[in-house]
Each structure stands twice: as C-alpha cells, then as structure tokens.
Write a structure and sequence with these properties.
The chain has about 300 residues and is of the alpha/beta class. Helices cover about 55% and strands about 10% of the residues. The chain is elongated and about 65 Å long.
Length: about 300
C-alpha cells in the first residue's frame, strides 16, 4: 500500500486526505517522503535537485505546513482555525500545498470537528496527511474522509543499526530500539532526549524499591514529581517486569541490558505467576490512563495492587 501511494504521488494522483497509522519513526519517514514527492517540481519525483526539494530538505519549504501541539499536549480548535486561514491562501511555489498533522490523535473533539469541512472540501491543490499510531484515536467522521494507509514498522535490528550509524553506542541503541518498536515513541528523538533517559532511570529505580520498606511512599512521591510523564514511566516499568519474566522463562532477549542484575534479582524474587499478575495490573493501568482520570490516584491504586501480588 505504501509503495502504491508513493507511485501515485509521483503521478500527482493522490487522495486529498491521507491517514497514516503505525509506529512513529516509520510514519514520520513516510510522511516526509510523500510530502517531498508531492511538492517536487522536477521530472523524476522527488528529484532532489529542484528548488522545492532543496528547501524541503532544509525545512524551509513555504508550502509544507506541519501542525503539532504547541503550548499544551493537544491540538486545539484555535490551532485548526488558524490552519484553515493559512491554507485558504494560494500556495507560494506551485499548485500544491501539503499539511502534515503530526500526532493527529492529539486533536480534541472540537478541533477534529473544525477540520471536517476542510477535509470534505479542501482548497485547490491542498493535501492533508494525518499521522496516528492507531486509527481509533480519531473520530469515525475523520477516518471516513481519509484514505487510510497502514505503515510498516521498522525492525528492531534496522532501528538499532540506524541509531548506531548516527553515533549511538550499541547498548543504548539496543534499549531505545526495543522501547520504540510499534509505539508512538520515536527512537531518533528518544535517544537525544536527556530528560526521558533520566526518567527511565527513575522508573527502573521504582521497580527496584517498590517492594522494600518505604518503597510505596518513595515511588508514589516520584510519580507525583513526574506526573506529566506517568505514561512513559509506566511503559518503562512494564519493560523491566517483562524482562524479569523473560529471564525467568530461560530466555535472555531482554530490553534493559544495562540493568541485567536488576532483571536477574527480580526473576529470582518473583514467581512467573506473580510477574504475569504484575504485568496485567500495569496493562490495566495503561488502559485507565487513556481516559480522563486523576493520574496520581490511578497510579497509586495500581502500585498497591502490584505490592499485594507479593504479599498474597
């Protein structure tokens, strides 16, 4: 499907609204390849040598509009209204304009409804590209107005090799590759994000101390401190307990290879049944955090359930 869409883009024959769904790194790469092709003014698109291609590569193309959350975690209705004003002017360079809405699932309901009319009746030459991890992040009315394209995820090995080619150390490249596969986490962004890498250490420490005396108070306090990143910390904790279960089952394909002793200790301390129960609790918490809940209370309730697994 991806190859067909790119081939049609070379011929100038694409839908006016395209929904890309799949892992973030692969999705971003395809969105940029598609946009560059659509905006190219050369013969063999994308030619890489025309003024349009060169400006696209350095991020200064005036007819490539990227919309993503600004001051908050969400794309709001005012952001969409501003976008609509902008796209109703003539393109600067040719007869095409591409709007890429990154993380389109962050549009709230009002924003999605405000976008509907433009998706139904787009300005001449305007192509919308919406990117999400899963289609169900969007309203059905939005999905029905787009040509949906499932994006093939990069393999862990390909992601790891790509990171190492760009200077990453093998150990960190391994960890980040596993963490990003099939998710909305970009490996290339994560490996440069010092804050996220520090949060990973905090989440691993949480796994280490939760079952010690005073562990609940310590972990609860840390989550309160980093509550805006609760989902990310929960994801890391999930990988740690997953590694413990993998190791307990006799395999060694663990994610957190820099914390192998923690994994070995956990695989010894917990039974396989207990680790499965803990992972089920974490999965339930992740589902709960998708809704409008008080994060701190939800996290604390889950932490208590995780502790009960060992005390029961």
């Amino acid at each position: 499907m991806q190859d067909t869409v790119l081939l049609n883009a070379k011929k100038g024959n694409v839908a006016h609204a395209i929904l890309l769904y799949g892992a973030k790194d692969a999705r971003e790469e395809f969105a940029h390849a598609l946009s560059k092709t659509l905006l190219c003014t050369g013969e063999n698109k994308p030619c890489g040598v025309c003024g349009s291609c060169k400006r696209f590569e350095i991020g200064t193309h005036p007819d490539f509009i990227v919309l993503e959350p600004k001051k908050s975690k969400y794309i709001r209705v005012d952001d969409i209204r501003e976008l609509i004003v902008e796209i109703n002017t003539k393109p600067f360079e040719s007869d095409k304009r591409v709007v890429y809405i990154k993380g389109a699932g962050t549009m709230n309901t009002q924003a999605q409804n405000a976008l509907l009319k433009s998706l139904e009746e787009p300005p001449q030459g305007c192509v919308f590209i919406l990117g999400v991890l899963k289609k169900d992040e969007l309203l059905t009315t939005i999905i029905s107005r787009c040509a949906a394209v499932k994006i093939r995820s990069k393999s862990i090995a390909d992601t790891k090799n790509s990171l190492m080619q760009n200077g990453a150390k093998e150990e960190l490249a391994h960890i980040v590759s596993y963490m990003s596969v099939g998710t909305d986490i970009s490996a290339t962004e994560l490996i440069k994000d010092k804050k996220k890498l520090e949060l990973r250490k905090e989440a691993i420490m949480a796994c280490r101390v939760l079952y010690r005396s005073g562990g609940f108070a310590y972990v609860s306090k840390k989550f309160k401190e980093y509550i805006d990143n609760a989902e990310y910390m929960i994801d890391i904790m999930e990988t740690v307990f997953r590694d413990m279960l993998v190791f307990a089952c006799g395999a060694e394909n663990i994610i957190n290879i820099d914390e192998k002793q923690v994994i070995i200790n956990g695989a010894t301390y917990f039974t396989k049944k207990e680790l499965l129960e803990i992972l089920q609790i974490i999965n339930a918490l992740k589902q709960q955090l998708c809704y409008n809940v008080v994060k701190q209370l939800a996290v604390e309730a889950a932490l208590l359930k995780m502790m009960e697994v060992k005390s029961s």
